[in-house]
Amino acid sequence: MTGEDRRGARLSRRGALAVGGAGLAALAGCAGVFDRGDDPPSYDASALAAAVEAETPRPPTAFPVSVPASMVERHRTRTRDLLDAVPEDPSVPNGVVTARLREQRRRVVESMAEDRSGEPPLDRLRSWRWLRAEAAKLRGVYRAATGDADGAAVADRRDGLRSDLAAFLDGWEYRGRDPVDAFAVHRRVERLVDRCRDPLESGSPFPAQPTDAVFRVGDLVGGLERAAAALADATALRDRYVGDGAPSRRAAVVAAADRLDAAVARADRAGGDAGGDGTPPFERDLENTPAQFLYDVASDLVERRRREMDEARERGHPATAAANAGTALAGVEARSAVAAAIRDGEYGRPADAARVKTERRRAETALTAAWDSGPATVTVPLARPAREEFASGVRRLRSELEEGSAPASVSATHVNWAIGSLAYAKHYARATPAAVDRLASTLRGAATDG
Amino acid sequence: MPDWSRRRALHAAVSTAVAALAGCSGEASVSSSPTPAPDDARRVTDYELKQVRNADGVALFGRSDADEPTPTESTPGGVGAPSASTHLTGPEELSAFAFADVPQATALARFVRATDFETRSVYLYQRSIPACYDLRLVGVRRRSDSVTANFCRDLKPADVACERGDRDTVGVAVRLPFAGDGFSGHGTGLRGSCGGPGRAVGEGGGGS
């Protein structure tokens, strides 16, 4: 099930709950009540296209650690070495395997030649890690197909990487001079540790007959290479940042995550924006309005981020847990603002396509302000849900406009969805600065207390 | 013309179309009768299996009274033999089918004709398959009035010579340990992977 499918499923559920208040809404004369006698309208496609023409704004890329060219170069050299182990025009008896080997090799070669100079440094590193793993997968498949796969060597490499990871974890103290910067850097390191850990924990057994399962061998070998590349980057970023004599910030980050978690729980209880049974705090028929989708997104984010916060704690990643708590905090605030707006009759049936443009402009302004509201190392991760929802709304509408032979009009469902997404991006982004401030001050306070 | 009831003729036609649509990914399982509750399905273990493979892609069998390609010719357009399946419950049904004049079809026909339909019935299936892939019977399930055979498809080992674009025909006959009285439907399931060559998860059953 795709994310949009899941969203659709939720939409139905919550939509049904919200619609439960339809009769009351009609009596109360709430604005925005959809007249069931009308067919849902459609909207002018050219006006909508103009509204979603511009790209989704890009966040600032400030990061406390510079990425030297040598880090990228190591990945490039390794990728080239792996690729060189596979002939330019590989051929094995099985024609399908041959075709896939050739196709995979061609894709790796083409990807290596892409110009990545415009990518933010951390994104460039990620691209090269992926390429390196793809090249390793290719070599693994080729070796298995030609009878050269060595299961013992693969097992040795996995054991070696597990030992390397354990050694890394032993010496990882979340050191850093500034607690907020330390949070940002070590959150990145946590993600790299996950990338390393996953293939080491989830790899299937090496096949007894490698020629019978060449792509499984490729997946295993590629996974180990991905783990090695991630661990190398995690180590390099940590070591470049830490320097000599920087204090451990682990306790401060753990304490900050705990305090923010408690703050989220309090805000969630105090907000009263959704009853325990998910009943919306308003009586209004939301069917066929942007409000229907908007409230669904607003309710879902808080639940999801709190769940992810718990998962991060279980993995022993307090910086990720703290970031998720920060987003959940902004999410609670955004949900309150959304509920109040819906209660006031906003986000009813849009009069025309211009509403999309208006909502987009407001969301963009709020998002930019959120990014500028503090250190980018904190504002960017905390504002991410706003950017994702912004991008989702734009993408959905674009995809509808590009569907088939350039439609002259777009149905209300897609327009409502886009407006709901952009409106959520706006409300969430407006709630971000306070959450940024709370997270930063909690980190600093916890560092002082410690 | 053999005693080929309208119900059974419709049943065979539906099954043929469904088998063709089953595709190579995911799992398809259908029956021409209403789908019973899952716990109604029982695994059949003591069947006998005959599986053949024709490298020229010819149709191994077909309805002799239907407007279909001559069994010894492959379907025009390079898509291989048409998929077909049926649950043979008696000799009169068997006589409605013609088998191609190739060794694999002959072997299949011999196996089917040797069945004692008083106590047994036969699920018969053919499918075009890319030359570099294997088809395996995963298992057979029986409900009160229908039977379903589930298959998986996997890439052949890398050191087995095959051409990417070629197509073979696989024929399967499963001799089931029960007569076909009271059965009104059958289904075919196909999933795109067996979990790796040599690792098809069988549900039991014999072979021949």
Describe the structure.
The complex is a heterodimer of chains A (450) and B (208). Chain A has 450 residues and is mainly α. The radius of gyration of chain A is 25 Å and the shape is globular. Chain A is built from 15 helices and two strands. Chain B is of the alpha+beta class. In chain B, the strands form three sheets. Chain B has a four-stranded mixed β-sheet, with helices on one face. In chain B, 46% of the residues are buried. Chains A and B meet through helix 5 and helix 9 of A and loops of B.
Helicity level of chain A? over 70%
Low-confidence stretches of chain B: 1-37, 70-74, 197-208
Distance between the termini of chain B: 32 Å
How many helices of chain B? 3
The residue fraction in helices of chain B comes out at 10-25%
Topology, number of strands of chain B:
10
Strand order of the largest sheet of chain B: 1-7-8-10
- Radius of gyration of chain B, rounded? 16 Å
Q: What is the mean pLDDT of chain A?
A: 87
Assembly state (oligomeric): heterodimer
Topology:
The complex is a heterodimer of chains A (450) and B (208).
Chain A: H1 3-19, H2 22-28, E1 42-44, H3 45-51, H4 69-84, H5 95-112, H6 121-145, H7 151-170, H8 179-202, H9 214-242, H10 250-271, H11 290-314, H12 318-343, H13 354-371, H14 376-401, E2 409-411, H15 412-449
Antiparallel strand pairs in A: 1-2
Helix pairs in contact in A: 1-11, 3-13, 4-6, 5-6, 6-9, 7-8, 7-9, 8-9, 8-12, 10-12, 10-15, 11-12, 11-15, 12-14, 12-15, 13-14, 13-15, 14-15
Chain B: H1 6-21, E1 42-44, E2 48-54, E3 61-63, E4 84-88, H2 91-94, E5 97-99, H3 103-113, E6 121-130, E7 133-142, E8 146-155, E9 167-176, E10 185-191
